[in-house]
Amino acid sequence: MIKLTTKLRLWSFTFPLLWLSVSIAQVQAKTLVVASDEWCPYICDDRTLPGFLVEIVKEIAANNTIKVKLSLMPLARALDLAQKGKVDILLALTPQHIAEFQLQQSQTSFGGLYNDFYVHADQPWRFKNIDDLATKLKDNAILGTINGYQYGTDLGHLIEENTSHIFSASGISPLQKQLDMLQMKRLDILLDSRFTVQFHLAKLPNYTIVYAGTQGDFTPLFLGFSSLFDKALIPVFDEGLQALRESGRLKQILAKYDVNDWQQQSQMDTIHLPPKSQ
């Protein structure tokens, strides 16, 4: 048996801390590029209320003397740039995104989503199951999605098999575009998440759009880091979120957007939806 001397034990404990300190110092010397499309209330094109996820990431960075710059762009482009190492951090990604584009992932979730359907108020269709939706598309209905988004395996297969009946919006503010299309009845069904759709509809009182059901369960969202990003720094963001949660600061940020902490999120929290379709 080899016994470690006191000095060696101390060095073994201190070396990772020194390495982390060096890594942080290197990042502090540059500005990290954080990218996403607009997806309010997570990421908003608004200087006063830039989105709760933007505020969270910026506050964690500031607490560690790290400079960040938010760049709004279509998600598909942001994913491509992150894969090439030209973007450092992407916001609100599913595990599917991270695996497909070979990114690094935060250990802690930074929000979440549901696969929710919305229709015009005079449209009687309600989601029952995947087969029912497939039948609706075969009857020439148009389903609105967003380019670059992931909706899980089952819906992903359905979308791939019915491309002629899918309208996939792109750009910096694709959800607003889809809501406009649905209101004008150029779409029959919109697929997105209740948190973002209801946030937008609250500001559009003349829009007659209603919830039409949910597929699947709550899906956690993560920060995605470029493969070139120093993995030793990822815990800075995980631990930073936990510190905000424990101090009550996270609750303060979320309250500005009328959002609850996703750790306590249940199917009926936040927006008082009708019962989930089976």
Give the gist of this structure:
It is built from 10 helices and 10 strands.
Layout of strands and helices, then pairs:
Blueprint: H1 6-28, E1 31-36, H2 52-63, E2 67-72, H3 75-83, E3 89-93, H4 95-100, E4 104-105, E5 112-120, H5 130-138, E6 143-146, H6 153-161, E7 166-169, H7 174-183, E8 189-192, H8 194-201, E9 209-220, E10 222-225, H9 234-247, H10 249-255
Parallel strand pairs: 1-2, 1-3, 6-7, 6-8
Antiparallel strand pairs: 3-10, 4-10, 5-8, 5-9
Helix pairs in contact: 2-9
What does this entry look like structurally?
By secondary structure, the protein is an alpha/beta fold. About 40% of the residues lie in helices and about 20% in strands. The protein has 2 domains: about 20-110 and about 220-260, D-Maltodextrin-Binding Protein, domain 2, CATH 3.40.190; about 115-220, Periplasmic binding protein-like II (D-Maltodextrin-Binding Protein, domain 2). It has helices at about 5-30, 50-65, 75-85, 95-100, 130-140, 155-160, 175-185, 195-200, 235-245, 250-255; strands at about 30-35, 65-70, 90-95, 105, 110-120, 145, 165-170, 190, 210-220, 220-225. The strands form 2 sheets. It has a 5-stranded mixed β-sheet, sandwiched between helices. Helix 2 (about 50-65) links the parallel strand 1 and strand 2 (about 65-70). Helix 2 (about 50-65) packs across helix 9 (about 235-245).
Share of β-strand residues = 15-25%
Coarse structural class: alpha/beta
Helix share of residues? Answer: 25-40%
The major sheet is characterized as: 5 strands, mixed
Number of strands: 10
Strand order of the largest sheet: 2-1-3-10-4
Average of pLDDT: 89
End-to-end distance, in Å?
A: 62 Å
